[in-house]
Design a protein that fits this description.
The structure is a single chain. With about 1050 residues, this protein is mainly β. The strands form eleven sheets. It has a 22-stranded antiparallel barrel. The chain has a five-stranded mixed sheet with strand order 3-6-5-1-7. The protein has a five-stranded mixed sheet with strand order 8-13-14-11-12. Helix 1 (about 40-55) packs antiparallel against helix 3.
């Protein structure tokens, strides 16, 4: 939407009117009228609009000759209707001195526009008539921070439902650096972050959010199998705006439980007549990475008499820092003496994380985006539109970490440890024989293609129709390589032949016993102090000498995902004005959609030795500590020992772990993750012959076919109720879903790899196909009362259905096995007998999210760019999928059922409610004198209270995950002359994340909580000329970070430290 910000004198060409004033201010009382004007010749459209409005509209034939009007539908004021009708025509409407409107030319420049904004348009007096040029001057529209705010308010005001919007300030310039970062400014929207950038989104506490592109389903390369959208792969420069629909209509696509995010790209008929071109060059710099990156974007478009074409592109390169301190692996309850805690025995215990990792992570991202659109007018009634969008994300994560690792055993607390009355360790000192450094490298590439072919029919009569074909394809692929390196002896191994070492029995003589790392320490003695703002390490053992380390274990795997979409839909609208009382039109239509998603996970397996070629001789974990159990060799270690001096070309020393205290000055040795930039090449350099084997327990295909029909009645009454006009819509949408899941049944006794499927892959017994069909009837209603011409009260009701995470329904059975051990789990069986320990599986019968939603809002539109609003919402979710664990009789790997064990799956659990309030206030202070009139504000607050059926350690109900009860935004705006600026602060309260299971204890539900967070961003720009703008922007200016705790506020769980980033660039408009 374009806001015309600069007026100049116009000629009336023989009309009797000699002067005209500006349009009334938005807050003045104006009649709201239902309009229905199709796209057609501009002169005809103005005549029709004038009749519907009962207003005189004056124009000369020369002014409108050869120009085309935009369609105008919906209830709004005459001024708003004229703005929509004339958008992109190069003309503007001005109120006549004697009433009515005068159509004339205008010229838009950034510098003059800013001067005009010094006072409301209504106060600018009259404009003398002068000769009108043959053609108005057409420049690229620049909204700026104030114009973008006004445009977003206009969308909200004129919408037939409850919606909030974001509008680009300029071509290629949304308000923030990512789409998700912009969305967090919308009331009720909360986001997650990846390496500091906004990525995932939820609305009013629920992640089941639908994302559409120009009104239809959108496929993104990130989050292909997830219900929660991940927008990190989408270049924000390609979009003109985003709408957040909080109450649906029957005519809209289903799939969002709490709302729909509608991405909008530009089309050629949105542009001014003739040629439009713009470009942007930007550099950005991170406070931790200290690396300069770049962004380039450009748009060129042509809007002709009967056709138009547009092409826009974007490329960006960024290197982001993410320092992470993470205890989120597995936990156990342990006595101070280092024995598993037994609730039956009672006594004191402490909560012990098995793994605590302190990492330095670098994320390099390259984003590519391309958007093309073409439109053609066919005759006088048809418009053909074709759109194509492409985006690609290359994301490389390099990580090196220091890892306190218990070896998944209970550890005794050493002197100097501090434990509070809840069993929370404040200072922990340990002797760890499995302490290590860890490294990994994950190069990932995602791509998405989305196309749309659309034919609209509108002859200016009662019947209007649209047919549409949408096609999409998205892929996401990554490989990853890992290395663990230990400076400890790491146990005694039988080498060269079967031999008895320690308590490991073997009846065959021969071989020798060696340490896995002969130059290592018996254990690393160290401590972690959690009492400060950040953890602090302490070492009694010197961990800085690479000669003490060995490359202990390495492995590699990957994921390949693909999603395809085809949708065919037809939408028909029939105008019933003057035919049926109060009913203005009926909308009805149908849609057929097919989505095909394939998810494949694989592992790289390599031979344990060149002369061993059997599938049973392959290794996933290449670790000399694994005793080979192949058909030729059994009972001893055959993989090479790799002390750091033998792999020195891969070794580095690392000390940059952010504010983490106690890191040795000389750094800590580890395998440099850059050595694994090609994961497969690195694995083959150490262990030749790696081959990718699919993991059937984590490989599946989901086909989903939906058949949809809807009918919707739109109504309007000017007489209204108690003198209040009202309008809205009511309808029902019916969706039939046919879902087919292809997965695999595996045989736990058959596998590829030594020592069982945990070190290889399990074999497929047969393919499984599960089909589920269901039908949803989704009624909806939206009712709007015009309490006054500038005040609206809205009420909405809807039943909605939301998507599931596909892994929850598609994954096969995945079973884990362990050796019988010493002391044996089952006496009489050999030490290496492989016994079932645990498992997990998908659930193809899982029902989707279903909810009944209620919404209400009150909106007061005052002044220019002023809005005061309050909203309330209530979601009654029928069932939340939840994780359940049951003891099942799963056989051991010899096929005999003995102990069985826990199998975890996802099942439909209890329901829950989310209820809350939203408050919004926006105003531009045009009434203030001088420079102060450039200020404005946008503030909002969301209260979102939720309950689920889950309980924590104390038996208290937990809220819905990832929902903050309180959130607010405060945005200060300034635009005056050639300068504009914006400061934005977003804060959200603590939120429930999930549960951590505590082993060796009945206390299995410790709640994970994320602490409150607040992010401060700012931007400034200056128009050097009307066509040249320089700007600067800063994100996370206060170096905010994410922090989580486990049940007790002082029990450390996670810290993610992001960086401050500074952006500077130039925008050019031709």
């Amino acid at each position: 939407m374009k806001v015309h910000r600069t007026l100049r004198s116009i000629a009336l060409g023989g009309t009797a009117l000699a002067a005209c004033g500006a349009l009334p201010a938005a807050g003045q009382l104006q009649r709201v009228i239902p309009f229905d004007v199709p796209a057609q010749d501009l002169g005809q459209a103005l005549t029709r609009l004038g009749r519907q409005a009962g207003e005189q509209i004056v124009f000369t034939p020369q002014t409108v000759a050869g120009r085309h009007a935009n369609p105008v539908r919906g209830s709004m004021t005459s001024e708003q209707a004229l703005q929509l009708l004339l958008r992109g025509s190069g003309l503007a409407a001005h109120s006549g001195a004697g009433g009515g409107f005068v159509i004339g030319g205008y010229m838009r420049t950034a510098a003059v526009v800013a001067q005009q904004q010094a006072a409301p348009l209504a106060a600018q007096g009259t404009i003398d008539a002068v000769e009108e040029p043959e053609q108005a001057v057409d420049d690229v529209v620049v909204l700026g921070v104030r114009g973008a705010q006004r445009a977003a308010i206009d969308i909200k005001r004129n919408a037939p439902q409850i919606v909030d919007s974001i509008v680009a300030e300029d071509i290629g310039k949304l308000p923030d650096t990512t789409i998700a970062d912009s969305l967090q400014r919308v009331p009720g929207v909360q986001i997650g972050r990846s390496a500091g950038e906004g990525s995932t989104v939820n609305i009013r506490g629920l992640p089941q959010v639908l994302v559409t592109l120009n009104g239809e389903q959108f496929l993104g390369g990130q989050g292909i199998i997830n219900a929660q959208p991940d927008l990190s792969d989408i270049p924000p420069t390609l979009f003109s705006g985003v709408d957040v629909f909080k109450s649906p209509t029957a005519s809209q696509l289903e799939g969002g439980v709490s709302g729909t995010i509608s991405l909008k790209t530009r089309r050629p008929f949105d542009l001014t007549r003739g040629l439009t071109a713009a470009a942007n060059v930007e550099g950005n710099y991170g406070s931790r990475t200290k690396k300069l990156n770049e962004l380039y974007s450009a748009l060129v478009g042509w809007h002709g008499e009967r056709w138009g074409a547009l092409l826009s592109g974007s490329y960006s390169n960024s290197t982001l820092a993410n320092i992470s301190y993470d205890a989120g692996n597995s936990w156990r309850a342990t006595t101070a003496q280092g024995t598993p805690f037994s609730p039956a025995a009672g006594g004191a215990y402490y909560y012990q994380p098995d793994v605590v990792t302190f990492s330095n992570q670098s994320v390099a991202r390259k984003r590519y985006g391309l958007n093309g659109s073409a439109q053609v007018l066919i005759g006088s009634a048809f418009t053909l539109t074709g759109d194509a969008a492409y985006n690609r994300l290359e994301n490389r994560t390099r990580n090196v970490g220091v890892q306190f690792n218990s070896g998944y055993n209970s550890l005794a607390l050493l002197g100097g440890s501090q434990v509070d009355e809840n069993g929370v360790v404040q200072v922990g000192s340990f002797s760890e024989p499995r302490w290590r450094t860890s490294s990994y490298n994950r190069p990932a590439t995602s791509e998405a293609y989305n196309t749309n072919l659309e034919l609209k029919y509108d002859a200016g009569e009662r019947l209007k129709a649209t047919v549409r074909w949408v096609h999409g394809k998205a892929t996401n692929n990554y490989e990853q390589s890992f290395v663990d390196s230990l400076p400890t002896l790491n146990g005694v191994l039988p080498r060269g032949g079967p031999v008895t070492c320690g308590s490991v029995p073997n009846s065959q003589p021969g071989g020798e016993c060696v340490y896995a790392n002969p130059n290592g320490f018996p254990a690393v003695v160290g401590s972690i102090d959690y009492t400060g703002k950040y953890p602090k390490l302490g070492f009694v053992t010197d961990v800085s000498n690479p000669a003490n380390y060995s490359l202990t274990s390495t492995w590699a795997d990957g994921v390949a995902e693909e999603s395809k979409l085809d949708a065919f839909r037809a939408d028909i609208s029939y105008d019933t004005t003057d035919l049926i009382p109060f009913i203005t039109s009926f909308d009805y239509g149908g849609r057929y959609g097919k989505r095909d998603v394939r998810h494949r996970e694989f592992r790289y397996l390599a031979p344990g030795r060149a002369d061993l070629t059997s599938p049973a001789d392959l290794y996933y974990y290449k670790d000399a500590g694994i005793l080979h159990q192949g058909p030729t060799v059994a009972g001893y270690s055959i993989l090479p020992l790799l002390p750091f001096p033998s792999v020195s070309q891969y070794v580095g020393s690392f000390s940059n772990f952010g504010p983490l205290g106690g890191v040795p000055a000389g750094g800590i040795p580890a395998i440099d993750p850059r050595a694994m930039d090609d994961p497969l090449a690195f694995q083959n350099a150490l262990f030749p012959g790696n081959v990718a084997y699919d993991d059937p327990t984590r490989t599946f295909r989901v086909e989903e076919k939906t058949s949809t029909a809807y009918v919707q009645a739109n109504f309007r009454s000017e007489q209204g109720i108690l003198g209040m006009p009202f309008g809205g819509n009511v309808g029902v949408r019916v969706i039939g879903t046919n879902r087919t899941i292809h997965s695999f049944l595996t045989n736990p006794t058959e596998f590829i790899g030594t020592n069982g499927n945990w070190n290889g892959v399990i074999l497929v017994e047969r393919e499984l196909t599960a089909t589920k069909k269901y039908t949803d009837w989704l009624p909806s209603a939206n009712l709007t009362f015009d309490v006054a011409s500038d005040q609206r009260a809205r009420f909405a009701f809807a039943k909605v259905v939301g998507a599931l995470n596909l892994f929850d329904i598609g994954a096969g059975a995945n079973y884990y096995y362990g050796v019988n051990g010493d002391p044996p789990r089952i006496p009489g069986l050999p030490f290496f007998a492989s016994l079932f320990t645990s498992g997990n599986s998908g659930n193809p019968d899982l029902e989707p999210y279903r909810s009944t939603n209620y919404n209400a809002s009150y909106e007061w539109y005052f002044g220019r760019g002023g809005l005061l609003s309050v909203g309330a919402f209530l979601f009654k979710v029928k069932s939340f999928p939840q994780t359940v664990t049951q003891i099942q009789p799963i056989p051991d790997q010899d096929g005999v059922v003995r102990l069985g064990g826990p199998v975890t799956t996802t099942a439909n659990g209890g329901g829950g409610t989310i209820k809350g309030l939203e408050f919004g206030y926006q105003q531009q202070f045009d009434f203030l004198p001088g420079l102060l009139s450039g200020f404005g504000i946008n503030a909002n607050y969301t209260y979102s209270d939720s309950q689920s059926s889950n309980t924590d350690l104390n038996g208290e109900q937990t809220p819905v995950p990832d929902n903050s009860k309180h959130q607010y935004n405060i945005i200060g705006l300034y635009q005056k002359g050639a300068f504009q600026g914006r400061v934005a602060y977003n804060w959200r309260s603590e939120r429930f994340v999930g549960f951590q299971t505590i082993q060796n204890s009945n206390q299995s539900n410790l709640a994970i909580w994320a602490k409150p967070q607040g992010y401060l961003d700012a931007s400034v720009s200056y128009d050097i000329t009307p066509k040249l703008t320089v700007y600067a922007q800063g994100t996370n200016l206060t170096n905010e970070f994410e922090e989580r705790y486990l049940q007790f506020p002082n029990q450390f769980y996670l810290q993610n430290l992001f960086e401050r980033r500074i952006f500077a660039g130039v925008r050019v408009r031709l």
